[in-house]
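Thread: Newbie trying to understand structure tokens

Hi all, I'm a second-year student working on a class project, and my supervisor (Dr. K.) asked me to get a predicted structure for one chain before our next meeting. I've only ever worked with sequences, so writing a 3D structure as a token string is new to me. If someone could post the tokens and maybe explain what I'm looking at, I'd be very grateful. Here's the chain:
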Amino acid sequence: MFLDFGIKDIIDILCVAYLLYFVYRLMKDSGSLNVFYGILIFILIWVAVSQVFEMRLLGSIFDKLVSVGVLALIILFQEDIRRFFLTIGTQRKMSIWSRLLNRKNPQQAENPDVMKIVWACEQMSKGKVGALIIIERSMSLSDIIKSGERLDANINTQLILNLFFKNSPLHDGAMVISHDKIIAAGCILPVSHNMNIPKELGLRHRAALGITQQSDALAIVVSEETGSISLARKGEFQLRVSTEELESVLSDLS
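---
Reply by user tm_fold:
Sure, no problem. This is what the structure looks like when written as tokens:
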């Protein structure tokens, strides 16, 4: 049996290994890594039962499960699968070549609007003014933008402060920033139903987590109760962020 093992088989194994690694990275970026682990464990058990131990009855049951498994996965993990394919569709926009260009031209990569956002968040943090700012990246947020008031304004510290002022009619919604513009304000976001979110975090934090679970956007939250600044990305929180850390994260995005 081992005499039939040739170079073609080695290439086949390497291709499968690379494919699994590629899917792993994509699912990790889309926040659906648990689905990948579950599918991988199921495949390993299926191969062991049907090929290694040759259990005919159990193997036939697993064969039937595999035949309907795709439909079951779509029903059970539709949100995770949606994020996975959204990640695949936006890989071209984040190519290695564009990153190399940004590294070779650090002055060009610097965005002067970053400090305007940081200053606004710092002042709102000191005044305990609640705010929710969404930075659009490669995935379109057109549906979110349509739910708010279209602005298409240049990024300005005073404008951000005025929009989130407590008496402003748009202060309860989210602000969407894209391509160095304040695209819209007062936008409605999907709320995360993650039960692991700390109870002290309010609706703004749940909305920030919700949008980052469905897209690759970055969400900045200023707490109205404590004044602390938080970041949400890839469905995870980074709480109590300093202004220096916020500046660093925003500079990396620009």
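A couple of things are worth pointing out once you decode it. DSSP finds eleven helices and seven strands in the chain. The beta strands are 131-135, 149-154, 174-178, 181-187, 218-222, 229-233, 236-238. Feel free to ask follow-ups in this thread.
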